[in-house]
Amino acid sequence: MSFIAVNIQLQVPSTLSFTSSIAAQDFLFWGYEDQQVLPFGIYDTETDQVSIYTHAGKPIHKLQEDIIRKTALKYIKML
Fold it and tell me: What distances in angstroms separate CA 38 from CA 31, 73, 77, one per listed residue?
């Protein structure tokens, strides 16, 4: 678990861990394309870096990186 995808699904914050950033990005992309999730971004547990999700090169919301980080760290503590 190195990369945590953070999103909203059915108006509830949701997270899912992946071993690669590409897999996390694909999850967020296809969830958004299928309109099942509203993607926020990806948290890298090894570097403490956050990547805001963009769709076709454009951000889909104005979310602060700190919200993604806090949600991901809360998820890690629950494991």
Answer: 7, 19, 23
Q: Are 15 and 68 in contact (CB under 8 A)?
A: no
What's the pLDDT score for residue 40?
A: 94
> Does residue 7 contact residue 42 with C-beta atoms inside 8 Å?
no
Enter the pTM of the model. 0.91
Phi, then psi, of 6 in degrees rounded to 5: -115, 130
Sort residue 29 into left (φ over 0), alpha (ψ -120 to 50) or beta.
alpha
- Answer positive or negative: Cα dihedral of 35, 21, 65, 72: positive
47 CA to centre of own chain = 15
The residue ranges of every structural domain in the chain are 3-78
